[in-house]
Each structure stands twice: as C-alpha cells, then as structure tokens.
Amino acid sequence: MVVTEDGCRLWAAEAGHGEAVVLCHGGPGLWDMFGDVADVLAPRVRVIRWDQRGCGRSERRGPYSLARTVRDLDAVRRHFGLDRMVVLGHSWGATLALRYALDQPDRVSKLIYVSGTGLGREWHEHYERNLAARLGNSGARLAELKGRARTASEDRELAVLQWSADFADASKATGYAERMADPWFEINYECNAAINREEREVWRETELVAACRTLAVPTLIVDGALDIRPRWAVDSLQQALLSATRVVVDNAGHVPWLEAPDEFGSALLTFLHES
Description:
AB_hydrolase_sf, AB_hydrolase_fold, alpha/beta
C-alpha cells in the first residue's frame, strides 16, 4: 500500500525484476485492468500497477485533479525506491503519463502512450458519432441508462455496454468488455467529472506542443487502428515529440492488448529493450 504525503492510501502491486515500468490506468475514475499486460512484461521487466486516488482498491477520497494525480504517481515512484522509471499510460492514463513526463522528465526513462487522445479537444464530437455507429441499436439502451438513476448492477451494465464499442471485432466485444469489468469496482464519477472538467479548462494544445518539443524522453505511441477515438488526434503529439516511435495495431480498437496481444506485447518489449 502506497501512502501519499496527504495520507491517502493507494493500492499497488509489483511483479518481475529489472527495469521498472509503472502502469497508469484509464478513466478517470476507473481502476487497474492491466493483468494481461503485466503477464507479458513481468518475465522481462519489473511491473508496478496501481489504482489511482479514489479508484478501485485505493482509498475513496479526493481531492481529484490532474496535478494531484501526478503527485500520487510520484508517490508510487518513491514508495518503490525508483530514481527513474518507464511510465506507461492507457487512454486517460496516457494523458497522466505524458503530463508526468513533462513535469518530471528526469524521473522518466521512457514513455509509452497507449490509445491516448492527443493534445487537443476536437476529437470528442467524432468519438460520439463513432460510438453511436458502433453500438447501433444498443445505443438506445445506453442512452436510457445514462439518463436516469441506476442500480449497482445497471452501472456495471452501462460500463460493459459502452466499453463494448471499444473493440473492433463485434462478435467478441461484449466478452472483452465483461473481462474488463471482472473484478468490478464502482466507477468514481466524482473523480471523472472533476478531472474531465479541469482538462477542458487547462489542456491547451498550443502550450502542450511547445512543451513536448523540449521533451527528450524516448516515447512509444501505440494505437489500435480501429479505435473509435480518432487517431488523427494524436498526430500533433507525435510530430511535437523529439524522440517518438509510433506503432499502429491493425484490427484492434481502444484496448489493443486484448485484441492483438502478440503484436502489442512485441511492440512494448522491442521498445523497452532497444530504445
């Protein structure tokens, strides 16, 4: 258990030996779902997983902000005695990992940016259209659940339904989404709303491009080619970074390690041992 400087208890676990890779989950308000990633990496490196403040197995209390979560990530680093670390983030976690690398470049040996949404905010409208198209008739149930108070089981149903759109193969999408929801922890909607609101107010593409142009940390960007979040949103990040490699995983959506585990694992291990 990691204890932050303000006394918040964060769940964390480690496996393997060697170079330390700290995994930052998506959300905001979700929890670590990196079991399959850890299984691939742990035979070769030291893998550290954690649940962010208020999420999953961590203590459910705020405050919730990007800066606070960056400080919590640094508390994880200190707890495990790391001078430097590889930081891997998925989705919202990719935003967190990038922000940490910009704020603490001397603490980051490599950055792995998985299924992120880039430096701007224009992708949201396209995401909503793509979500509706991929859900098809199931979109009506999603809208119904979102529009009213829900039971705990309906909260889980809503998450599984929305997550199912994150996969390219419709025949397997619900199964993958159910796998992400097991074990199930309640989504922290307060955390989600607070950090998303802050991002809308302070996440400015022009300023971030300028900051990224000074970041010398070797970076791997991994995209699923069929992610419903438009991949062009990440282009300005790739172009701004001084040292970036990009791998696009064909026939995969937002969670490429479930749909294309061999290609995803190979991309990560090649980058970790050759960069």
